[in-house]
Structures are given as C-alpha cells and as structure tokens.
Amino acid sequence: MRLSVQAGDIEINLEGAAIQIDEQIAHTKMEHTWTALLERIRDAREQALEAAVTAAREAGLPDRGSAFRALLENCALTRKPDQVLGAIHYLRDVEGVADSPPRVVNQLFSDAGIDPPGNLSLYLNRLKERSFLVVPSGKDDKNRFATLTPEGQAHLDKRSRA
C-alpha cells in the first residue's frame, strides 16, 4: 500500500502494509506535520471558495434571490410546502449552509421577492412527517438543521420533470 499527500511544500509519503501506514500516520501526527498539512488544505479551500465567489460576482451571475426564484420556477414549485422544501435544498446543496434558522429561510424568500412562509415550523414538521426532511442525529431535533431525504430529493426531481 502507498499513501501520498502533498499540500504546497509539505509532502507525506507512506508505504507498507496497512498497519505500518497506521503507525507512520501516528508518527506524522506526533510531529505535527499532519496538522500543518491539514491547515494548508483548509487555507487552499478557503482561497478557492473566495476566488469562486469573486469570479461569480464579476461574471454577473444571479444573486441568491434570482437563483432561488429560478429554482422554484424551473421545478414548478408553486405550493408553499414545496417552496420550503426547495429552500432547504437550495440552502444545503447550492449555498452549502448547514444551519438555517427561520430568519435565514425567510430572508431567502424575501430576496426572491416571494412572501415568506410565515409559520415555518409547521411546514418543516409536515415535510418531516412526509419523510421529505430529516434532522441529523445529535442536532436535538432542531428544524434549522433539517436536510432533504432521498424521498424529498425525488419529490423535487419529479416536480422538475412535471
């Protein structure tokens, strides 16, 4: 087996059986080389994200409100529960937001020029009852962390083909 990782001028090359590589990784962690490598990777990721956001703004890509409205229109999401499901999909999968309290969801609707859902918890709980949303374990069943289930994604996919 061989494991090779390089980030900038930090390079880790490990070879041997799985147990030997495990030992070498443990040794690398003790020398803090692993931590430095991970920091380089995090920095590179952050720089790449910043560059992507800057490039998108310079290219004149639509703002979040226009993009969310386009999602709703393209998927024919006209009913409020479907729009809330679309909002969770947009926040999680497009913007990469993991924590979306009601103000964030309502702001997304406002940015799109659409009336916010009002009692958001009611919609989220109904979507959970339909198995379209789930709150990951360890999140104290807080709706703000809800994610689409495969059934929820299939529902949106079906709507976009309708």
Task: Determine and state the CATH class of the largest domain.
Answer: Mainly Alpha
Task: Report on the biggest sheet.
Answer: 2 strands, antiparallel
**In the CATH classification, which architecture of the largest domain applies?**
Orthogonal Bundle
* Number of discrete domains: 2
Helix-strand layout with pairing:
Layout: E1 2-7, E2 10-15, H1 18-30, H2 33-58, H3 64-74, H4 80-94, H5 102-111, H6 120-129, E3 133-134, E4 147-148, H7 150-161
Helix pairs in contact: 3-5, 4-6
What does this structure look like?
This protein is mostly helical and 162 residues long. The protein folds into two domains: 2-58; 64-161, Winged helix-like DNA-binding domain superfamily/Winged helix DNA-binding domain (Arc Repressor Mutant, subunit A, Orthogonal Bundle). 60% of the residues lie in helices and 10% in strands. The protein has helices at 18-30, 33-58, 64-74, 80-94, 102-111, 120-129, 150-161; strands at 2-7, 10-15, 133-134, 147-148. It has a two-stranded antiparallel ribbon with strand order 1-2. A two-stranded antiparallel sheet has the order 3-4. A hairpin with a 2-residue loop joins strand 1 (2-7) and strand 2. Helix 4 packs across helix 6. The radius of gyration is 21 Å and the shape is elongated. 17% of the residues are buried.
